[in-house]
């Protein structure tokens, strides 16, 4: 191989040192954040497209950094996964999401179906043998019925089919919890896994929804995914609905559920409560 530049063999130039330093700092900050509970949840409504009623919520984590302000998940989840800190963070997300949803359900009129709450799960969490116990205890301590909890997994996580992973998903499923495939259509999936994995819900990735109103190929793929869901008796949720055109295309295509800025952005617990109960105190 040809030598491409004088920095080729330099292991620790000043720029790398700075970025390494920053990485260490961020890691220390994240450790402190776990101890000091610097995380918050946002809740985005999941809407029944035909009626507009709210059928559930997706819990999305945020890090409120004391100096840097609100840090979005994509800026710290990778580091949290790399360092294993996603395990305590993810466990907090799960418990807090169940607690909130259960409290809101208790205030809803008896003749309305209870809200579901969806929680994102990282592959690192699924490597832990105690995950089913953690899920069970989050349900027990919150009183949330198991069928109201949805665990969202990405395709890459599902395609990695070590037997332990599959067994653990079955164990979670056996608790009565439902499983969703997130970002459907973006991973290296074979459709075969839809039969093997105990999945209940498909979430159609935003990249399809973005173009569903104006790119015929995107519309065809979206409708194909919805029909696949119907054939397998799975619910379909369209992600990232931003305008009325996308909504009508999806509704016409018989997509059951959706979420996106067109309905609501991810909301603080207080704002979610106002949306659900019209600002009544309680
Ligand atoms: P995701 O699970 O696919 O979540 C949907 C993301 O799209 C959220 O970003 C949400 O705010 C955003 N979104 C929703 N509707 C719209 C829309 O109409 N337009 C646009 N442009 N965006 C929309 P967010 O909250 O920044 O989360 C990003 C990702 O971080 C999530 O993608 C998920 O993969 C991950 N994440 C979030 N919370 C958690 C968590 O508690 N645990 C784990 N492991 N990952 C999480
Ligand atoms: Ca998700
Ligand atoms: Ca998604
Ligand atoms: Ca459009």
TrEMBL record:
Protein name listed in UniProt: Diguanylate cyclase (GGDEF)-like protein
Start and end residues of each EAL domain: 23-280
Taxonomy, superkingdom: Bacteria
